[in-house]
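Worked problem 6 (solution included).
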Amino acid sequence: MINRILIRIKVVQMLYSYFLTKEEKSFVDAKKELKKSLEMAYQLYNYIFVLMVELTDLQDRRLDAAKNKYLPTEEDLNPNTKFVDNLFIKRLRNSQVFADYQKENKLTWLDDDIFMKLMLDKVLKSDVYVNYMNNGSNDFVEDCELWRELLKKVILVDDDFTDQLEAKSVYWNDDLETIGTFVIKTIKRFENEGEKAFMPMYKDEEDSRFGEQLFTQAVQNRERSDELINKFVQTENWDTERIAFMDRVVMNVAVAEVLNYPAIPTRVTLNEYIEIAKYYSTPRSGQFINGILNSIINYLKDERVIVKE
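Solution. The predicted structure is:
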């Protein structure tokens, strides 16, 4: 689940913080915080799935309570159970990866009962839910689509939900958009792969080491990368003192990746860090970083420092 795109973002964020607070934060502490940040991103991924399961369970309890009212209506006695019988939720419960993580971490929203009731009410009043319940068909693809649409149009965009996440962890302030996308993609994959679609934290051992290694290399290579950055900033007649600090950090990490990962094409590295700069720095950062990094990469190729495409 934690792919290299997210790892790169986390390394840039942590390097920015480390360079600003080196007087207060040791290199070892910064690496520990990076590891914790990545672990919390995966926890958020699981937390969103837990929310879907527990919202379903809450509605099931509501329907059951309605049957036991003093004067239940016909609808109370014979409710439409399409939502609580959702086939995607049933398969999610059977995911061994999801179950194992839950057993170890015991994530739950049940302590947030007011929030859960409000969120369920918003789900039940949404056009997505109403249209789903009014559709007489019942198949797995439709049940997956329901939760993708509820996430996109009701849950992930809800202010109460984002406030709740911020209250739970400071690490999640910038993660929701990225992790929400991973969750939606996972639900889509369920249509073909079933419960195997639920993603482990890392694809493989190499990815699990990538973040710490890249962070270390960016710190160790800072002087060299700064020299390269300054060389081509001056060539382009930019003032090195006016470079946005985040732009420099992004380029520090990008140069470290170019120099230390021969298997990663330079175009992949370039594109990834241009996008990171566009999102986290200034409106002009993407174009600026594109020009400087292109010049650095071409120079390193000409000098035979790197030989990759």
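Discussion: The chain has 15 helices and no strands.
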